Amino acid sequence: MLKPSSSTISWVVFAGAALLLSLLLQDLYLRSVLNLIAISALLAVSLRFVMLMGELNFAIAAFVGIGAYTAGYLSTAMDIPFWVAIPIAGIVTGIVSAAFGAVTLRAKGPYFLLIGFAFTEAIRVTYSKVPALGGTSGMVGIFPPLVMDPWMPFLVMATVVVLLVVFFIMERSDFGRVLFAIREKEEVARSVGINTFVYKIVTIAFASFAAGIAGGLHAFVNNVISPGDFSYLMAAFALAYVKVGGEDHFAGPILGAIFLVSLSAYALGFGGDEHFIYGGAIVLVVLLMPKGAVGAVARMRLRKTDVKGGANAALEQ
Amino acid sequence: MQPSSNDALLRVNGLSKRFEGLLAVDNLDFEVRPGEIFGMIGPNGAGKSTTFNLISGFIPWTTGKVQICGKTMRRGKPLVASDAGLVRTFQHGSFVGGISVRDNLRLGTIVRKKTAERDAAVVEVARRLGLSEHLDETTSNLPHGLQRRVSMAIAIAAQPRLLCLDEPLTGLNDTEVATVLTVLDDYRKTQGRAILLVEHNMKAVMRICDRIPVLHHGAHLATGSPEDIRGNKAVIEAYLGESHAA
Ligand SMILES: Nc1ncnc2c1ncn2[C@@H]1O[C@H](COP(=O)(O)OP(=O)(O)O)[C@@H](O)[C@H]1O
Ligand SMILES: [Mg+2]
Q: What ipTM was estimated for this complex?
């Protein structure tokens, strides 16, 4: 492991740079790309958090949608301001996901993944059938107050940074240890009296709270949402960020999101297709760097370092 | 049948488990009392691990009644058993391989210790089981004997009133066995605790156990002191063989 101090310092520098960038960027297109990177990183970290306990949360797209629609509805139909709508979006999403988890996580097996997939599509169809939610054309006019507009990239980034810090702290605490145990050998945790079911529900609820917040932010920065935004492809993209960055390390999904969102934003300028880019990136990464970018860097460090030296340290990180 | 006492940590009555056509546990009655090491023996397939699974709630029994520290258990509810004071290990590795020894021991402390007390509890359990130098190693990289001790240490870190260990000495060398036996002996001497042990190492069982029940084809064959068991004809035939009789 790196010394906590040096890794903490790099995190703080990194977060500070991201926040500064969100304040300084003036170009509208670049601002929208930065928002998308921040929101995507939050989704990817949320997805990976649930992966810590060995479950692939394909319902994440539904939860982002529920957050976005909650925030959109509160804002457009009820005139509830941005800073109230966003937390409510997160809380509503967290509650829905807890109920979803209580049903799907009772039994071992692929239920959570499969039902998550179906749930995403069912919820998406629901939006398009409900006139109050704008039907197939979606919701328009989801605006933050005018005075906030210049600050949106900063608010998005700051919200994401705060949530990422909470994810990080949870992973490094005893909570995270229990999640690792659940993934690898749940019965050991249960034998010493740990209520693993409660841990699973809290995990999905917190991950989805963050996904709901991400959805709410997405609604307010795009001003428009439609059912098609929240198809299972969103979950597939989040999985691409995790896999490309590397799922063994907290930084993996963040780097994956930065890389893939930037790449597709760049390629879109040349008429590229983002599905194609993501698909290609996943294939390349799985073939060339099975542990993702972070894993590849760790292995390179390993080769450079003297075997007696910090070799394992680099990998263990 | 043993004489009944009111303060038994574990009381089992008419416990049976049927898997399809196989009666893996057949109408067991026994109790484990404070201060004792109760050493269950029997040939492979006798139903020892299944008995562990039943009393710890990991699988539901077919019939029977189980009480832990006076509380009546519900079938197939591991949390009820652990809340009542029973913690068990699993025969085939009771640890999480992908995390450090320290993190494994930490798991044992989560339910009963406050966050601030957990570090010290982990260090203490590691010291007693000779794991101090290995705390920061990844558990799956350790040799088998150390992994066994990690399994046991997780359970001990949870400080149960009834510690149930399924073959904790398998693959341990003599020094390691001696270390573990000292730890077990200390553990049972702590007020209000007892150990339920399943073990094939007969020398160790005979040395440390107070009472030894013998299972055969799921059923109770005999219970007695190490001397009684060593001299019991039926037990020798079913399990010990002539070599142990001397
Ligand atoms: N889950 C199960 N399903 C079917 N049969 C089982 C199961 N678990 C154990 N058995 C059978 O029950 C018998 C007792 O097994 P076990 O309790 O593991 O014995 P021991 O621990 O004494 O070696 C064996 O014949 C075993 O094959
Ligand atoms: Mg067994």
A: 0.91
